[in-house]
Every structure is written in C-alpha cells, then in structure tokens.
Design a protein that fits this description.
Layout (H helix, E strand, L loop, with lengths): L1 H14 L3 H8 L2 E3 L2 E3 L2 H7 L18 E6 L4 H16 L5 E6 L4 H6 L7 E5 L6 E4 L4 H12 L19
Parallel strand pairs: 2-4, 3-4
Antiparallel strand pairs: 1-2, 3-5, 5-6
Length: 167
C-alpha cells in the first residue's frame, strides 16, 4: 500500500520543472536577491546599447549594480557573498545583477571589461560609473546610498565641545 501511494507522489515530483528549466525558459536566473543576466536580458532590463550605442539610457525601474565576473576569479568569488548581502539589505530599492563576462563576451566587450570584478553602478538619472576590483562592503554601502539612492553623506560628529570659560 505504501508503494502505491509513494509512486504517484514521486511521479508528480519528477514532473515539476526544476529551477534550471525555469531559468532556461526566462533566459536569466534569479538566485536569492541577485539576478544573473545574459545579453538578451541585459538589453531588456538595463540598456539597449545596440540600439543606442552612443547614448546611455537606463531602462530599469530601480537603480542597479552590475557585477561583471568570471568563475575562476578569486576576488569575484569573495565579492559574491558581499553582493548577496547588499542585495538583501537594499531589497526593493536596487537591483544587483551579475554577468558572467566569459559567457557574455560580446556584452563585456561593449562595456570594455578587461579586469574582474568590474562593477557598473547605474543610477536612475545620469551616467553609470565603473569600479574595478574587490570593494569592501562599507564602500559598496556608501556608493549605493550616495550614488544610487541619492542620500547625503552622514556628517561626522565631533566630540569636541567648546569650553565657554575659554574666550
């Protein structure tokens, strides 16, 4: 009897599409809060650089960070969990995209990506800015806050208090 119940359950389980199959049908992979893009999705979500090669027009509805990475790059591997944290921390405020620079060589050439990781920061208005190499989380947070979200830098508070008796 157990075998008769278990068999239909197993058949249903194996017939459900896997995440890989879902990703293949949508041409990109969303893993946690980081979204892996191919060229087609980049053109749809970020910028159609083929249609307007001399003019930057960001197509997104939120600012974004685009990480051009390679699978063999040590700094890229160390940056990955930091970008996951940033994506989760700023969930709903920005997108964090990843582009495999070797698989998407044409896209990498279009943005003159020669070193890894290369981070492209795209605000809603204005030109994108590029940063090269592994950045500490604090630097990424500052860039997101100031460049992408337009927040003013926090003022440094001084512990110095003028003494009213010294004139």
């Amino acid at each position: 009897m157990k075998k008769l119940i278990l068999l239909p359950v197993m058949i249903c389980f194996f017939m459900l599409p896997s995440n890989a199959q879902k990703a293949a049908s949508t041409n990109y992979v969303e893993k946690h809060s980081v979204i892996y893009l191919n060229k087609a999705e980049f053109i749809k979500r970020v910028s159609n650089y083929e249609q307007s090669p001399n003019e930057w027009k960001y197509l997104g509805d939120k600012p974004c960070i685009i990480d051009f990475y390679t699978t063999w790059c040590g700094p890229c591997k160390r940056l990955a969990p930091i970008l996951e944290d940033i994506a989760n921390e700023y969930n709903g405020q920005i997108y964090v995209y990843k582009v495999d620079a070797e698989k998407e060589a044409e896209l990498s050439r279009a943005f003159r990506i020669n070193s890894y990781p290369s981070l492209l920061f795209c605000p809603m208005q204005g030109k994108p800015q590029m940063a090269l190499g592994l950045l500490p989380k604090e630097n990424l947070q500052r860039i997101v806050d100031q460049l992408l979200l337009g927040k003013k830098p926090a003022e440094k508070t001084s512990s110095f208090k003028p003494d009213s008796t010294n004139k």
